Amino acid sequence: MTVLLRSRLTPWLGFGLAAVLLFGVAPVALSGFRLGLLAKFVCYAIVAVGIGLAWGRGGMLTLGQGVFFGLGAYLMAMHLKIADAELRGDAVPDFMQIAGIRVLPAYWAPLASPVVTILAVLLLPPLLALVLGLGVFRRRVKGTYFAILSQALAAAFAILLIGKQTIGGSNGLNRFRTFFGFTINDPANRQMLFFIASAVLLAAVALSRQLRNSRYGELLVAVRDQEERVRFLGYDPATVKVVAYVTAAFFAGVGGALFVPIVGIVSPNDVGVVASIALLIGVAIGGRSTLLGPVLGAIGVAWAQTALSEQFPGGWTYVQGALFIVVIGFLPGGLAGLAMLLRRRRPGPPTPADPPTVAPAPVAEQEPAR
Fold it and tell me: Which intervals carry biased composition (Pro residues) (predicted)?
């Protein structure tokens, strides 16, 4: 009874502690600049939750999450540029004026509406993942081939963005002034953006936990370990994989949309192959098969990158590569897996010794009556 009660209370205690740290301690203990950095790392953590679900539980090495992250980011950035242009009374954003573009492209026009923008951020990345997932998993593409295909997709997406001058080209989109009518540079509004990102992160973790502990989560693990047996039992492994892949894309799109007003810029460098692999490294280091490992790993790796880049600008790439090699080669479960291993090897409380067995006293034989 005590063990069951503890297992039910532990997740709620964890969420409560995370909420206190994010909403209570961080705004007080960190400066405005550091709080903005933490908000950026939280956006990466939202993407990492989806990678942990698709890769850690589903076995799908998603090297192309930058595509969905970038799609959500660029949709939000395009809306913010249109809103800034309307405030100035211009027909097109500032970078288009410099490039000599005087008419807003047709695919930009719907994003002038905040409602359409939010719906596009929530729906387009999952829809793209649905189309790609059905096309890939129905053909039983998996393992290394799926990883290479997703990585090629990220590279193609970055090249497409660089060649599109109507969405900023290689410079990307930047210099945003407002976010749905609120001034971005206002410290109070920047703190509110951090709170929004933190709330989305907690909601993503809660949804991921619900999927992991459900019957679907057990089926996802079964597909990862024994796909042919699952197919023999009457389930469609492709459908199971698509659900996890679409969920990961949804998280990535939302994280990208929040990344734009928090950081103030989005470019092809944020959505290409290197960015996708960096997200994967954080998940691997934290522990891809656990619930909180991807979150802590993504935040920790991003923080380490910022801290080391300030001291050693050219050395972070080597440190990142070394960390990834060490984790993959010696700690497949990540740091969370190491903690679980140490917990299992810790000796438990001594069991009480059994009471000594007392042999029954022999019964004296009675003399027969004479």
Answer: 348-359
